[in-house]
Amino acid sequence: MLSVRLDKFLWAVRLHKTRGDAADACRLGRVEMGGQPVKAGREVRVGEVITVVSDELTKRVRVLALLDKRVAARLVPGFLEDLTPPEEYEKARLSREEHALNLATSPPLRPTKRDRRDIDAFLDGFEAEARELEE
Predict the structure, then answer these.
(1) Is 32 helix (H, G, I), strand (E, B) or coil?
(2) pTM of the predicted structure, to 2 decimals
(3) Radius of gyration of the chain (CA)
(4) What is the largest CA-CA distance in the chain?
(5) Does one domain contain both 24 and 78?
(6) I need a labelling partner for 64 at 20 to 30 A (CA). Which of 23, 84, 106, 122 fits?
(7) 35: left (phi > 0), else alpha (psi -120 to 50), else beta?
(8) Same domain for 50 and 113
C-alpha cells in the first residue's frame, strides 16, 4: 500500500471516532498537512506530518506506516509518531479542569424531577400554614 485516504487513516489510528467525523474535520479546515488545510480524500504517505485541531488540543503526528482498517489502541504507536509538544497536553488538561470546575460551581439550568418534587412539597407546606392562619 503506497497511500491511503486521509479520513480513513485518521479514523484507523483513532484520531477521530468515526470516518465521518474525520471527513467533517477536514471539511471544516481542522486538519492540515504542510501548513495547508486538506480534504478528506487527500492521499497520505509515510513520513508526512498531520496536524489535527480539536476543541482542546492541537495534535501533530508523523505517519510511520499506512493502514486503512481500524486497529486496537495498543497498536496505534506503530503507525504514527506523536510530535505534539508536552505544553499542548498540559494546556488541554488545564482546560478540562477549568471546564469541570465551571460545571461544578454553576447552578443547573433547571431543576431535576426530584428537585421539583422537593420544591413542590416545600411550597405545599407554606400553603397549608397560610390556610391555618386564615382560619
Answers:
(1) strand
(2) 0.73
(3) 25
(4) 90
(5) yes
(6) 23
(7) left
(8) no
